[in-house]
């Protein structure tokens, strides 16, 4: 009887799970062949429906100048399931854009965003995508395909182009429509098809839906830039130049993970019921058998209880709420103490405890020019610039004892034109724990940049990236950061603070500025250093301090480390643009214009989530091997254990490892008595 029930239960489970594999996930979609009502739309104040979606006003006596509007489908679309696992979608729509002034203005865009509200002051060149405050910031949370009808800034190709925008009105890729025979603002119907396959976005345009030209294709992981759930729709704007911004028809089809999740919830519930019932049957037979045997285990007390009742039992860790309980180990590239108060790369328990000796290796210290830093705590033996073991250097980079880290070679007979180089610390740094939960760090370094031609070129950058290799053809204006292929793409995986010494493209402020770059050489923010009295390429030492608090990055620059000027501050969530583990270091380049690109000293301090986990792993091991009958263990504090550090050697030329004074002998093996 019971066996028959079990068979039935497992048969039911098989049917349920089998059905899961043959059930199709529902799709997200709609099709407005003609648009006559707004019941399924979210419209801004300046938008309306009158035989079309009028994203900005274009009927009656409504004024048309300096307007911005938004129109969205009223249900959110789940764009991705987890980072890198994106939904696919395609959308087709027809546009009717007709200039109302001699020059059309400004444009319309198909967008994905989490906000349906119109940004304040987003009329004119902003196309209602962003405004002057949110432009280039992650808080914009928007990706747009713009159909621009006026050349409103110098980087615009012309007044008739398609562009891909990410959190900014400055397109990462744009294509003129002149060669395809499409003129956006003449009042003719333009058909557009946008397709995303989870990895690549394409845009096709034409006057005939059966014969569209592919005008733009770009690799992009939308999960890096947008939240899971987004609205799809349109934005548009006018300025003193006006036009109609109408969407005549609109179709959208996409895979929506939400529907799949709801289905799987039912599958899991059904399977759970089967498992519980099956377990009940199994438990019935188990109890029946157990009742016929003697339960000998009950005669023995708990071993853990016996251990805990002794005076030598280890005390359990108290839930963290004491100083440093959230602190993580720091990797130092100069003299200083990390947050666990370590001054060298090894931790040693007191020998008096007679318990366990172990090591935790943190990054070695390095001073790039082989001198002691004055005024700070003494450090244990360090590696000097002649030792490259702590650095990852490209072919064009080098470390020279007499001087500094040369990101591009500048000594001997080596040619220095058209070079790009990279130099990184050799251990990756875990930048974030989960999206939005970032490590904090600060880094100080001194630069020596000296023009070798009348005009200096090109620049140097402090970077975070997952790739230590030099990009092919990344010399010249690319500063070793990206090249023409990776510029503006998410595959670049790089954030840089550039110190640019030549105005190499029209958007550069000048040949003496600091810029913040994200996957591109086109800075999302840049500041000239002329007002701060710092000239990068004169050969004088320039001190830089970069700080990131998990939400905002700041850059301070000056000739005196005690008196630096804050020159750049920008809100940024680095977890949106970089992988969890990154290398920190420098890139630089030259062109036909050359300069030295030298880093004279470098210090880096950061909370590294990995080290904290490894540290606590070793502490658990230490607590677990306390053996009964040995010397009494030390009292374990309720916060992280205390350590005593060796006395410092008299100089950096050697290290005394004897037991004289308060020095302790380092151990290389884990051992217990």
TrEMBL record:
Keywords (A to Z) from UniProt: Lectin, Membrane, Signal, Transmembrane, Transmembrane helix
- Is Glycoprotein set as a keyword in this record? no
SUPFAM superfamilies from the UniProt entry: Concanavalin A-like lectins/glucanases
One of the entry's Gene Ontology molecular-function terms is: carbohydrate binding
Instruction: Quote the CDD domains the UniProt record gives.
Output: lectin_legume_LecRK_Arcelin_ConA
Identify the stretch annotated as signal peptide in this record. Answer: 1-27
| Residue stretches making up the Legume lectin domain | 30-257, 387-609
Superkingdom, according to UniProt? Eukaryota
For region Disordered, the annotated ranges are: 654-673
Q: From the record, give the transmembrane residue ranges.
A: 263-286
UniProt lists the family membership as follows: Belongs to the leguminous lectin family.
Its name, as the record gives it, is Legume lectin domain-containing protein
């Amino acid at each position: 009887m019971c066996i028959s029930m079990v068979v039935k239960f497992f048969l039911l489970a098989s049917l349920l799970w089998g059905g899961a594999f043959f059930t199709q996930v529902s799709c997200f979609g709609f099709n407005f062949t003609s648009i006559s009502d707004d019941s399924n739309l979210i419209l801004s104040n300046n938008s309306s429906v009158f035989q079309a979606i009028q994203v900005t006003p274009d009927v009656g006596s409504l004024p048309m100048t300096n307007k911005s509007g938004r129109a969205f489908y009223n249900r959110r679309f789940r764009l991705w399931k987890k980072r890198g696992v994106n939904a696919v979608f395609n959308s087709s729509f027809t546009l009717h854009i007709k200039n109302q002034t001699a020059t059309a203005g400004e444009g319309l865009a198909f967008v994905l965003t989490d906000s349906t509200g119109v940004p304040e002051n987003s009329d004119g060149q902003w196309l209602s995508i962003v405004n002057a405050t949110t432009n280039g910031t992650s808080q914009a949370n928007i990706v747009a395909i713009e159909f621009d009808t006026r050349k409103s800034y110098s980087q615009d190709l012309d007044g008739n182009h398609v562009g891909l925008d990410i959190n900014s009105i400055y397109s990462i890729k744009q294509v003129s429509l002149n060669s395809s025979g499409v003129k956006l603002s003449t009042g003719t119907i333009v058909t557009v098809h946008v397709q995303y396959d989870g990895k690549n976005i394409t845009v096709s345009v034409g006057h005939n839906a059966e014969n569209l030209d592919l005008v733009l294709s770009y690799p992009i992981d939308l999960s890096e830039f947008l939240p899971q759930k987004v609205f799809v729709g349109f934005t548009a704007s006018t300025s003193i130049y006006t036009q109609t911004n109408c969407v005549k028809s609109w179709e959208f089809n996409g895979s929506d993970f939400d529907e799949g999740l709801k289905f799987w919830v039912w599958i899991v519930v059904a399977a759970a019921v089967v498992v519980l019932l099956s377990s009940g049957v199994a438990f019935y037979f188990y109890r029946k058998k157990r009742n016929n045997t003697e339960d000998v285990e009950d005669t023995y007390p708990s071993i853990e209880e016996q251990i805990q009742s002794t005076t030598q039992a280890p005390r359990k860790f108290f839930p963290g709420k004491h100083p440093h309980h959230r602190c993580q180990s720091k990797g130092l590239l100069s003299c200083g103490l990390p947050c666990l108060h370590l001054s060298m790369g090894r931790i040693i328990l007191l020998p008096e405890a007679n318990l366990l000796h172990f090591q935790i290796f943190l990054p070695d210290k390095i001073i790039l020019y082989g001198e002691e830093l004055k005024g700070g705590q003494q450090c244990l033996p360090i590696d000097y610039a002649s030792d490259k073991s702590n650095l990852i250097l490209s072919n064009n980079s080098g470390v020279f004892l007499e001087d500094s880290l040369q990101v591009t070679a500048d000594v001997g007979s080596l040619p220095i034109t058209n070079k790009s180089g990279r130099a990184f610390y050799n251990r990756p740094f875990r930048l974030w724990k989960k999206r939005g939960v970032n490590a904090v760090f600060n880094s100080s370094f001194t630069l020596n940049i000296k023009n070798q031609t009348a005009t200096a070129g090109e620049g140097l950058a402090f970077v975070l990236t997952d790739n230590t290799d030099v990009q092919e053809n990344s010399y010249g204006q690319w500063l070793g950061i990206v090249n023409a292929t990776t510029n503006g793409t998410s595959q670049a995986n790089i954030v840089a603070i550039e110190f640019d010494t030549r105005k190499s493209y029209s958007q550069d402020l000048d040949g003496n500025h600091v810029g913040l770059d994200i996957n591109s050489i086109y800075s999302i923010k840049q500041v000239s250093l002329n007002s701060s009295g710092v000239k990068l390429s004169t050969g004088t030492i320039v001190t830089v301090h970069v700080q990131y608090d998990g939400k905002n990055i700041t850059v301070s620059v000056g000739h005196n480390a005690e008196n630096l000027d804050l020159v750049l501050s920008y809100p940024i969530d680095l977890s949106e643009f970089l992988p969890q583990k990154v290398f920190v270091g420098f890139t630089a380049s030259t062109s036909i214009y050359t300069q030295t690109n030298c880093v004279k000293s470098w210090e880096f301090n950061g909370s590294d989530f990995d080290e904290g986990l490894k540290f606590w792993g070793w502490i658990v091991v230490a607590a677990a091997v306390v053996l009964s009958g040995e010397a009494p263990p030390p009292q374990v504090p309720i916060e992280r254990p205390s350590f005593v550090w060796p006395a410092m050697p008299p100089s950096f030329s050697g290290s005394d490892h004897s037991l004289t004074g308060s020095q302790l002998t380092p151990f290389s093996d884990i051992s217990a008595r």
